[in-house]
Amino acid sequence: MSQLFNVLALLLVASFFLVERSSASPSSRDNDEFDVKESIEIIINHPLNKERPASYLLGPPLTEEEIVLTLKPVLETRDVSHFDGLIQLYKVTNGLKTLEAEADGHPLKDIWLIPGYYLLSVHEVVETLSIMMRTSGVWIPSWLPLFASRTGDFVVFDTENGHIHEILTKESLRWEVAPNLQAFIHGIAKQLRDGRILLNENGLYDVIITDSQKHEIYEDSILDAPFVSPNARNTFNIEIVVHEENVGVPNLDFNCTNMPRVCQNIRNAIASGKTRSLQRITDKNQIKKNRQAACGKVTCTAPNNSCDEYPFASTSQGGAGATTMCVPLSENNSQGGQLAGFYRKNNVKDKDWFNMRSP
Ligand SMILES: *[C@@H]1O[C@H](CO)[C@@H](O)[C@H](O)[C@H]1NC(C)=O
Ligand SMILES: *[C@@H]1O[C@H](CO)[C@@H](O)[C@H](O)[C@H]1NC(C)=O
Ligand SMILES: CC(=O)N[C@H]1CO[C@H](CO)[C@@H](O)[C@@H]1O
Predict the structure, then answer these.
(1) Residue whose CA is closest, atom 3 of ligand 1?
(2) Number of folded domains that form the chain
(3) Where does the Deoxyribonuclease NucA/NucB domain start and stop, copy by copy (predicted)?
(4) Domain that holds residue 314
(5) Pocket of ligand 2 (CB under 6 A)
(6) Domain check: are 164 and 291 in the same one?
(7) Which of 257, 258, 262 has most ligand 1 atoms within 8 Å of CB, for mutation?
(8) What pTM value is reported for the model?
């Protein structure tokens, strides 16, 4: 508890530092210290969100008592009064009614609140955590899933230290995007307000960053942008243990029992000439680019379905032209777990080759 307090004190210092930095910049207005409510308002009222009715699909706010009560089982003995950002967020809105919105004909990207992600309601946070704990194999109990993409990607709140991580469960990758929730939402609102975010050809957000020669560089994901968290750009493999021995080019055999449609999609892809020879990549930007190129324009109409792709987005062979299929959500964790297990067991690292043997 006192340890948590220390961490919290550190975070507080860190967030002040962030605010300090941004208000020092000459182009920003004086009152840069907007709170979570103001940040959310900036995000939903931004012209880029006009086509995405996030605001009217957002659920009504909850009271602090309701938030604490719902989260209590997952926070266990932790003192929830320390999680200011979480409380502030859900006091603004209880997230998006995803399934209702989709049933109402809105594609997933219409209900994004932040680039690539929609906000889960507090009940969905608890439910999704329990599903991920049962099925994912790489999920850590202290990760509260706050934002989800429905393709196995999440933005999570770590109850150990309040840090915000982006998690790609299928690829077993995570990285820290902000030291706390306030800084995360603030960072996104600020970049939207300052016009450093635009829509790319896939209808997704890009971030404009200027290099030392003032050339514009485009990042494909705002969540990676250094301004969200200047000190936190580390990418980690989850649970990938490094062994010394070289096992050659390993063969991947999927167990299709729990994911018949994923396997059917792979068979379709191979039948149409896609390669079985794959090279793993761990560059998160490239993985997300591949996923968007493959699945960005696919709308899965059946409830609880999400777009799956072969070759996988986490290989050099993935991306535009990949064979896609809408698969039940229940199949995504099965695939993610099997891939992660395969990479770990066979020590398949970045740029290593492997062979998709079956199906
Ligand atoms: C495949 O998965 C199912 C369900 O988890 C399991 O019952 C079965 O034993 C597995 N088959 C093989 C060959 O591992
Ligand atoms: C979709 O998933 C939710 C939550 O897991 C479940 O309650 C609902 O019944 C599912 N709907 C369909 C159509 O499968
Ligand atoms: C079993 C199940 O439904 N797994 C997950 C598939 O992925 C989505 C989001 O990426 C989760 O919401 C599901 O829980």
Answers:
(1) 257
(2) 2
(3) 268-356
(4) 251-358
(5) 303-304
(6) no
(7) 257
(8) 0.59
CA 258 to ligand 1: nearest atom: 4
How many Å lie between the centroid of ligand 3 and the Cα of residue 95? 17
Residues 157 and 81 in one domain: yes
Pocket of ligand 1 (CB under 6 A): 255, 257-258
42 and 183 assigned to the same domain: yes
Percent residues over pLDDT 70 in the chain: 72
Whether residue 51 sits in one domain with residue 190: yes
Residue 228 counted as domain residue: no
Å from CA of 304 to ligand 2 middle: 6
pLDDT in tens, 132-184: 887 777 788 889 999 988 777 899 998 888 888 888 877 777 878 788 888 88
Partnered with residue 253 across adjacent β-strands are 358
Task: Indicate whether 161 and 299 sit together in one domain.
Answer: no
Taking the centre of ligand 1 as the mean of its atom positions, its distance from the CA of residue 258, in whole angstroms, is: 8
Residue 3 lies in a domain: no
Question: Which atom in ligand 3 lies closest to the alpha carbon of residue 332?
Answer: 6
Residues 170 and 39 in one domain: yes
Mean pLDDT of the chain: 74
CA of 345 to the centre of ligand 1 (A): 17
Which of these ranges, 18-22, 170-174, 284-288, has the smallest mean pLDDT? 18-22
